[in-house]
Amino acid sequence: MANTNKHRKDNIYIETYGCQMNFSDTEIVSSILINSGFSIINTPEDADAILLNTCSVRDNAERKIHERLIHLKRYKKQNKNLVIGILGCMAERLRKNLLEEERIVDLVAGPDEFRKVPQLIEDARTGTRGIAVKLSRVETYSDIEPLRTSGVFAWLSIMRGCDNFCSYCVVPYTRGRERSRSLESVVQEIEKLRDKGFREITLLGQNVNSYKDKQSGADFADLLAASAKAAPEIRFRYMTSHPVDMSDKLIETMSEYDNICKYIHLPVQSGSNRILDLMLRGYSVEHYLGRIKKIKELMPGCSISTDIIAGFPTETEEDHKATLRVIEEVGYDGAFMFKYSPREHTKAFALEDDVPDKEKVRRLNEIIELQHKIARELNNKEIGRLHTIVAESPSKKNPLEWMGRTDTNKVVVFPSLNGTKEGDLLNVKIHGSTSATLFGEII
Length: 443
Ligand code: SAH
Ligand code: SF4
Ligand code: F3S
Prior knowledge:
Layout: E1 11-16, H1 20-35, E2 39-41, E3 49-54, H2 59-78, E4 83-88, H3 89-94, H4 96-101, E5 107-109, H5 117-125, E6 130-132, E7 153-157, E8 159-160, H6 171-175, E9 179-180, H7 183-195, E10 200-204, H8 220-230, E11 235-239, H9 248-256, E12 263-265, H10 273-278, H11 285-298, E13 303-310, H12 317-330, E14 334-339, H13 357-380, E15 386-394, E16 401-405, E17 411-415, E18 425-433, E19 437-442
Parallel strand pairs: 1-2, 1-3, 3-4, 4-5, 5-6, 7-10, 10-11, 12-13, 13-14, 17-19
Antiparallel strand pairs: 8-9, 15-16, 15-18, 16-17, 18-19
Helix pairs in contact: 7-8, 8-9, 9-11, 12-13
Bound molecules: S-adenosyl-L-homocysteine (SAH), iron/sulfur cluster and FE3-S4 cluster.
């Protein structure tokens, strides 16, 4: 009956901010909306509802959304019935304050309340502003087939939430307790994607390597092995892993399967044990470097990337230098580097944010400069090498070129052949590089 309801033909436009989990969540909420009779559209102009799937991780992520809301006022002026909604982490963190402070917002729904979004839109259409922000201990949306726009690359969310409570981080508050999907449901989804011809799957979670299937007792290494076996022709990646849970078994499993990509994102955050303690990360620099050693031993060509926070409370020049040393010692292929941003309700918020902004910026720039130099050197060594890549999309700069990724997650730009299409498996030879990109030729 749902489809005969007049309001159920509404067009919904969703904008996504933040991490891959959010992009995956947008596919889930889109699917929920379609199942309730709504349509998903790609531009805001003809939308009956505009939803922003938001991020809270740093202050500037939230500021971006407040600015976007100012922009959206003009759409509301044109169409008084337009519904504007905030989904995701910022909805969860700011809750009813969002409705009180942002008059333009009609609905607020946290990451575990996506099933209520169709009803919240209906309510808003009839003038009732609504909020749903309960966190769940069990919701994994494992019964919902995400609305995937590519037929080649898939995000697959295997767990939700985080129990680590790193002292600077809002994620455990915005996404709630950690819970894993069953191995069976993940493998079933992989089999479906395999049968549809997908080429690459990224298993997603805030801390994927603490995955635990309660029923079978399977851990992340077991899940990864089961995935690789279920679809030998698909390449598997995963994001994000935590150094504490980077077990020998996981590294061994990765090394055993050709279709598990040799790429690990392993956030270090700081190179100082004192700061790591204050961050409540649960490992020492020595433990971290031990994991890197094991990875390089078993998978010599494996590429590694990281996250780093500059200017955490009490960080001294000495601590900062220690971070630079770790960056140098590991030799990261890539890194996401951030200035510390104090977040209300986190444990670190009680510490004085005592590194002056100018100093944070200086340290961050030093980190970025060193990292770019290392990435440039590593990428330079790629010249002359052969890689198999999966064609991803036309290059943004030049329509005659395409980009794809190596097994090691490096972006390769190459002149396309007539008829190059998404998903093509291509052998390329690298002939040029920068710190962020390789340039190659199909051979
Ligand atoms: N679950 C993932 C990452 C979550 S957030 C993990 O633990 O690796 C992504 C990155 O944002 C973090 O790794 C951290 O480097 C950064 N980050 C999180 N909170 C931050 C804050 N308050 N200030 C600055 N950077 C932060
Ligand atoms: Fe945040 Fe730490 Fe959890 Fe990552 S592991 S999401 S940094 S609390
Ligand atoms: Fe941001 Fe939430 Fe992801 S805070 S980084 S969108 S988990």
